[in-house]
């Protein structure tokens, strides 16, 4: 998945070309000023966006990195991610699923800015304040599913944000941390914009304003991969998009995505997807025709229906105390 945007995917034309700040996720919000979606996810590359985000694990386990901090979340755990924070995630179990709410920047203004919080329920007993967040989330999702009372939904969004503020801890970021985040973003952007060219760690580190060793250490901490692995995954995801959305010959795709030879693209597909590019393309076409709703080999994300059955599963995923 590249980046984590399952509700408003980019077109083939847009996905296949270089864009400014391509690690920066562009999110289109509906009239509710938020996105709510459920998905089965294998992996999400480092990205960031102007929308604060609330993640709840529906089933399975995820390892999530936010900035330079990591958390291992199990079923029922919840995590708030601040706006503009670089984050990535990786499923630690097959079939792991999550529910995500992204809050539009349009919900906030100068007098009422987006909360900057540290809040995660991982590895501790659920408090009453945590329970209030969960109850507000369930109420909001129920209203979205039923598509009723639009003003009530807007009110519930703010009640959910208020519950998060009460449950979380305000955390002003140190200047050094903000500076490092900006440098890492610059490096990720440069990779995403020049993936089709020969790239070295030294070059990207220099473009980011860091030393080789500092960038290498920090980059692996944020992305979970060393530079070479990450670059291969970026190229692989670009190739997947072209295989799915175009009829471009595989040899041409390999060169346009930065693989010097066709055999390197095949090797990357076999290593990370367990199949060849040709098999991947054929399976995608077959899945489109059969309308399968199963996460296929080589895919990182599958959207789930946001309905009453899923809401019931979410309600049963944790034993938080009810809000007063």
From TrEMBL:
Boundaries of every HTH araC/xylS-type domain copy: 185-283
Taxonomy, superkingdom: Bacteria
Matching Pfam families: Cupin_2, HTH_18
Key word Transcription regulation present: yes
Keywords: DNA-binding, Transcription, Transcription regulation
Record keyword Transcription regulation present: yes
Gene3D superfamilies reported for this sequence: Homeodomain-like, Jelly Rolls
Protein name: AraC family transcriptional regulator
Organism: Raoultella scottii
